[in-house]
Design a protein that fits this description.
There is one protein chain. By secondary structure, the chain is α+β, with helices and mostly antiparallel strands. It contains ten helices and seven strands. The strands form two sheets. It has a five-stranded mixed β-sheet, with helices on both faces. A hairpin with a 5-residue loop joins strand 2 and strand 3. Helix 3 crosses helix 4 and helix 6 crosses helix 7. Bound molecules: zinc ion.
Amino acid sequence: MPSNRRRTNRNEGNGGAAAAVRQPAIRDHVRAVLAAIGEDPAREGLEKTPERVEKAFSFLTQGYAQDVGALLTQALFTVDYDEMVIIKDIDVFSMCEHHLLPFFGRAHVAYLPKGKVVGLSKIPRLVDAFARRLQVQERLTVQIAEAIQQHVKPRGVGVVIEAMHLCMIMRGVEKQNSVAVTSCMLGGFREKLQTREEFLSLIKKKHGGLG
Ligand SMILES: [Zn+2]
C-alpha cells in the first residue's frame, strides 16, 4: 500500500533504529479525531469507522505510488495523424489539500500529435493518477498537461477541468452550484487562438446520439 511505502521511506532517512518505532496507523489517528469531536469511538456505528477511513484514504491517495511516465510511454503508438485528439467528460474525483474534502467534476484533455499517439484509455488513468492525491484544482490541471507534454511530446496540449468543491459548498462559502473552471494550454494550444477555440468549442458540444 502506498501509505506504507511512504512511511518506510521516511524511516529510512532516520536510520535503522527509527524503522523499529511503530508509526501510528491512520486508523489510530481517526479514532483520536472521533474522540476530539465529542464522539464515542467505541459505539457500534463507529467501531469500524477508523479502519474504513484508513482504507478509503489509502485508495484515494494511491496516485502517489503511480508512475505516470511508465503509464504513458508503455502505450505510445506511431501514427500518421496530426489532427487534434480530444477526450472529454472524464470523471474527476479528488481531495482538496486544504480541507481534505472532495472536489469532483469533469476533465477535458486534448493534444496535437507529432508522430505519436497515446492509447486513449491511458488519459483517464493519467487523470486518476494525479487526482488520487491531495490536490488543488489548478495544480491537478497543470500536472495532467505537463505529463502529456513531457512523455507524449505532442505539438501542444490543452486541459480544462470543471469541478465543484465540497469545502466551498458544504461550508456555505459559495453558492450551491458554483463550478470552478481551470485550464492549462501548452504549445499550439497556447500560441494559436484558433486551436484553442476549436478545443473549447468541441468540449462545449453535447454528445450527439452517443450520450
Ligand atoms: Zn478546500
